[in-house]
Amino acid sequence: MFPKSYDEARARFLASSESLKRRYPRAEMRSFNVPSAKDPNLFVDEIYIPGKKALLMLTSGVHGLEASLGSAAQLEFMSETIHLALEKGAGVYIVHCLNPYGWKYARRVTEENINLNRNFGTTPETFRTPNEGYLRLAPEIERNEKARHDLLHPFKTLKFLATRLFKKEFTSRTLTQAIAQGQFTNPRGLEYGGREQTPQARNLTERFKQVQNGYDEIIHIDFHTGLGKRNRLHLLTGFDQEKCVHPETFKRLFRAKDEAHLYKFNSGDEDGFYRTVGDINMMTAECAPGKKVVALTFEFGTLGTGLIANGRALSRLWLENRGTQNGFASKKDEQKIKAKFRDLFEPQDPAWQKNALDITHTVLRQVVERL
Ligand SMILES: [Zn+2]
Asked: What domain count does the chain have?
């Protein structure tokens, strides 16, 4: 069942962790208080139950508002599948809601407007990665005006993009990358990755370096929603697929050809997808050198793929950011823009939710059976 709010999800996660700790006394629970100017009750909670050979790591809520599916999947895993994983001798590391501010205040980003999935760079150079394309689009994207709900905004967004393509300023590939890969220069803009790791990214990175010790295989699944076909699970990975997806381990755990009814593996170079700089999957690969790593994003689609769906998605991201940065034209504009934004990343449709959770459960169960 999907948690209705961050606070409810956190209470359920802690209760479930306590009950696991009673059954497996070697379990370690930790909570990290995310520094905030606004709210002292924002925590990233985790449970680690040590094992041998393979480590299964499940993370949720990197993109705040997208957390409810990941949280529901983690809770279901903790009540069922985890026992099989532990019987098989695997270690299990579950990190709940890496961006509690985002979930609680209905944003994808942190309180500092940082996209956490561009904030896991393990070297200072990552935070200096240039994005010339974004800088060319920024004057329009970051225009200093109040956000107004406008039924035509998705079409205006498409026109804005199409003009850039028509003028040959971009190809569709470089345009997607410019908008989505992350940028490290404009704190009020879209997909800002910060100037250094945020406290919660640093905390996870340091903790993961300890936890991964002693394992041969690391399987990391990070839950997201929004991108891709509606009702479809997409398996994506970090910036460098070779580092993030060990081919033999992946083939053993995921029989992608036979399981096309459950999910599709999409490389970041495919149409409609993109490569991300400073993502969490790359952090996993870089902090577990020499290990057989399979670090994946489980992304459940909501709007669909294709030009029109992409225009609609960008329009919603754009207006929500504009409203947050410059204010909304009216209370009604704010409500409408926020409702559309939520619908993109946290659909309330029970059929969508049930399907997403059923598929996630099935795929996780298969992974554990094949560990
Ligand atoms: Zn996401």
From this structure: 2
Provide DSSP, 120-168: --SSGGGGG---HHHHHHHHHHT-SS-B---TTHHHHHHHHHHHHHHTT
Provide the residues around ligand 1 (an ion) whose CB is within 5 A. Answer: 63, 66, 224
Q: How confident is the model at residue 308 (pLDDT cuts 50, 70, 90)?
A: confident
CA of 97 to the centre of ligand 1 (A): 12
pTM over 0.85: yes
238 neighbors 295 (Cβ within 8 angstroms): yes
What does the alpha-carbon distance between residue 121 and residue 128 come to, in Å, rounded to a whole number? 10
- In angstroms, what is the span from residue 226 Cα to ligand 1's centroid? 7
**How far is the centre of ligand 1, averaged over its atoms, from the C-alpha of 370 (Å)?**
27
pLDDT value at position 21? 98
91 and 236: one domain? Answer: yes
CA of 38 to the centre of ligand 1 (A): 23
* CA 217 to ligand 1 centroid distance, Å: 25
Q: How far is the CA of 222 from the centre of ligand 1 (A)?
A: 9
How far away, in angstroms, is 299 Cα from ligand 1 center?
7
Count helices and strands (H / E) in the chain: 14, 8
Are 239 and 113 within one domain?
yes
CA atoms lying within 13 Å on the CB side of residue 284: 31
Pairing of strands 233-237, 263-265: parallel
Q: Which domain holds residue 238?
A: 6-122+199-301+350-369
